[in-house]
Automatic annotation (TrEMBL):
GO terms for molecular function: UTP:glucose-1-phosphate uridylyltransferase activity. This is UTP--glucose-1-phosphate uridylyltransferase. SUPFAM superfamilies: Nucleotide-diphospho-sugar transferases (SSF53448). Pfam families: NTP_transferase. The gene is galU. Belongs to the UDPGP type 2 family. It comes from Actinacidiphila polyblastidii.
Length: 302
């Protein structure tokens, strides 16, 4: 079986960041555990992986990330208390996270960038293709981006990145992709990548967002990749090399995503995500939308 034919079952979720933009909330609580309505952000990401058929999840963690492991583990004392009370609904929700997937954990150690975090996954992933999901990007389950990326890799081989067109004035915040069309409306060939380009130097306004489907050849490239932008080992730099290959881990394609994405790594976008998701909930939405309309109307009159 070739790497192109191999079924993708493993997901890697880098979760070693310090979450400094959310201090002091993240002083003792991992940013991945911040709630989005009533679930931690990281659970949405694991649910997305599972929905795409990835039942084996490796989290690349760092210091003070033990709550992540606890969240996806059983809590027998809490479960017994809820069972004694006959609270079947909350009991099911508590058990939901521990029954999602087979979870594994590895420490990154030194925070040397996303590329290094991915490289830490090599002993677990081995020589199989795999997905990488960044916890700051929440993709609405009604827009199955990851499943589409897996299908694109099955057709073209190599690696696949998720792309989203952004305001040219914001592209310096992302990795930027040079692209050419393929004939499929939402699929492009990536010919080059620049991590957080200087203003006016971006090859396009198509930004790499936090979903990747990677050929295992990326590990060999990352092992030889030196520090790049910000003094860190950048996954973008390794993908730029793979984009020049036919076979041996290449080429690189992009899926252009136009669906619903919530950036929980930014405070304002985090709040917007909570409002949007709360409004759409059947149990919370009607009352919350009524309150929100009244609140907005009052603010506009002030």
């Amino acid at each position: 079986m070739t790497h192109m034919d191999a079924r993708i079952t493993k997901a890697v979720i880098p979760a070693a960041g310090l979450g400094t933009r959310f201090l002091p909330a993240t002083k003792a609580t991992p940013k991945e555990m911040l709630p989005v309505v009533d679930k931690p952000a990281i659970q949405y990401v694991v649910e997305e992986a599972v929905a795409a058929g990835l039942s084996d999840v490796l989290m690349v963690t760092g210091r003070n990330k033990r709550p992540l492991e606890d969240h996806f583990d059983r809590n027998y004392e809490l479960e017994e208390a809820l069972a004694r009370k006959g609270d079947a609904s909350r009991l099911a929700r508590v058990r939901e996270s521990s029954d999602l997937a087979t979870m594994h954990y590895v420490r990154q150690g030194d925070p040397r960038g996303l590329g290094h975090a991915v490289l830490c996954a090599e002993p677990h992933v081995g020589d199989q293709p795999f997905a990488v999901l960044l916890g700051d990007d929440l993709i609405d389950p009604r827009d199955p981006l990851l499943a589409r990326m897996i299908a694109v890799r099955a057709r073209y081989g190599g690696s696949v990145v998720a792309l989203m067109e952004v305001d040219p004035g914001q592209i310096h915040l992302y990795g930027s992709a040079a692209i050419v069309p393929t004939g499929e409306g939402d699929v492009v060939r990536v010919t080059g990548l620049v991590e957080k380009p200087e203003v006016g130097q971006a090859p396009s306004s198509f930004a790499v967002i936090g979903r990747y489907v990677l050929d295992p050849a990326v590990f060999g490239v990352l092992a030889k990749t030196g520090p790049g932008r910000g003094g860190e080992i950048q996954l973008t730099d390794a993908l730029r090399e793979l984009a020049q290959r036919e076979g041996e881990g290449g080429p690189v394609h992009g899926v252009v995503f136009t669906g619903r994405r919530y950036d929980t790594g930014d405070r304002a976008d985090y709040l917007r995500a909570i409002v949007r998701l709360a409004c759409e909930r059947e149990d919370l939405g009607p009352d919350f939308r009524t309150w929100l309309r009244t609140y907005v109307a009052t603010e506009m009159e002030a």
